[in-house]
Amino acid sequence: MKEILSRLNIQEHNSGSSTGNEWLESSGEVIDSFSPVDGKLIASVQSTDRAAYQQIVLKAQEAFAVWRQVPAPRRGEIVRQIGEALREKKEDLGKLVSYEMGKSLQEGYGEVQEMIDICDFAVGLSRQLYGLTMHSERPGHRMYEQWHPLGIVGIISAFNFPVAVWSWNSMLAWICGNVCIWKPSEKTPLCGIACQQIVAEVFKKNDIPEGVCSLIQGGRDVGEWMSKDTNVPLISATGSTRMGKAIASAVAARLGKSILELGGNNAIIISQHADLDMSLIGCVFGAVGTAGQRCTSTRRLIIHESVYDSFKEKLVKAYAQLRIGNPLDEHNHVGPLIDKDAVKLYLYSIDQCKQQGGRFAVEGGVLNGDAYESGCYVKPCIAEVTNDMQIVQHETFAPILYLMKYNTISDAIAQQNNVPQGLSSAIMTVNMREAEEFLSHAGSDCGIANVNIGTSGAEIGGAFGGEKETGGGRESGSDAWKAYMRRQTNTINWSTKLPLAQGIKFDF
Ligand code: UN1
């Protein structure tokens, strides 16, 4: 890991505040980053203090005046170079993600691949920031709309996708002509430093001034400065519903814009018409991948009563084969949880589930011993429950999978929708009627609804986000870019008269 850290230019002690290539002094608290893989201290980062934050905002404002004048396709060309730089660093960055966050190496690489993919997507988009044209109701007039950049985009990201979610936001924000200030999770500060250096170097090579890509580090207070700051017109935040509500109200109080991507409580419906063997892969990966710490992780399986027992048996067998351990070892399927607090929450949820009447088909527990010295490794478990239990209504960021039964497809859809969150959902079926019902306006109420694949692992090309307590924001593909711009409607009169709209007469 030492060589990787040095190739990624991470020191033992790092400044956490940067305007690009310049790193600022700060008297903020020191964040020690411990790996959940082996419990060892990786390196430390100085969080941003108020003075450094203000300096960064000032620089960002200056940079915006320059960056918005760079033609969008040229901005896209710079993002293309960022994609190239990420391709070169894929292995090192993927390993750092895996070591600092604890996800499997395959998933660490997959996350960097998502970054590369969004760069490619943004390059194409930089030539497609289309507005509409309209026919004016007045003679000799033309109407159209254009999309302009907003200014500073504040990005607050979570530990579970420490690099990809930032890249979805920043690559789009940049091609749209914005400048970005990023606050990574205080649980994965080094991933932030590594990305900052990769990106800043590319901007420098292209003679783009400091301030287009800035980094701040710290906890809730630092995020709050940005949420309350009228100099930051858009905050894009990923994390828990509790955090999202705090950010949403701070941003709304100043009538700013926000994009929120919060908790999920994602279910897969297993129909009696499902290909059960194929479904198993999607369910198990969805539930235990990233140790159940994706916002798209599969938390609930709603299984038709006629296949409930046989599918449960398949799941129990599959769980017995899972290898839990060091995520950098490619043979392991499941790595650790992010920290000991997460382990406590996992244990608390298991306890609550039992108290509320849940029966465990696969028991959970914390793993001890040499290979698990960080104390963050837990057993993925499966509980038989009913959807109305309080714990089932709640998102626990851990590998706990809840099983429940259904009888009719409308009952299955009702159970699927009957939670406060609305991010991702899926149905496993080869029956076209029920698949279409699930996708219809009377079907799943989630932002993502899939057929015959699981709830997690969305591609970057689609808009990503969800409804209800998930926050309503959309990031990544499709037309999510529009949230990073302001729309301006323009009416141009090329006639010699000035007729008023709506036929109003105004002569003098
Ligand atoms: C998240 O967990 O915050 O769809 C993002 C997925 C990934 C992104 C998850 N592409 O599972």
UniProtKB/TrEMBL annotation:
Domain Aldehyde dehydrogenase: 23-489
Enzyme class: oxidoreductase
UniProt KW keywords: NAD, Oxidoreductase
EC number per UniProt: 1.2.1.3
Top-rank taxon: Bacteria
InterPro entries linked to this entry: Ald_DH/histidinol_DH, Ald_DH_C, Ald_DH_CS_GLU, Ald_DH_N, Aldehyde_DH_dom, ALDH7A1-like
PROSITE patterns xref list: ALDEHYDE_DEHYDR_GLU
Active site: 261
A Pfam family that the UniProt record links to this protein: Aldedh
UniProt cross-references to CDD domains, sorted A to Z: ALDH_F7_AASADH (cd07130)
Family to which this protein belongs: Belongs to the aldehyde dehydrogenase family.
Complex formation: Homotetramer.
Name by which UniProt lists this protein: aldehyde dehydrogenase (NAD(+))
Protein's organism: Danxiaibacter flavus
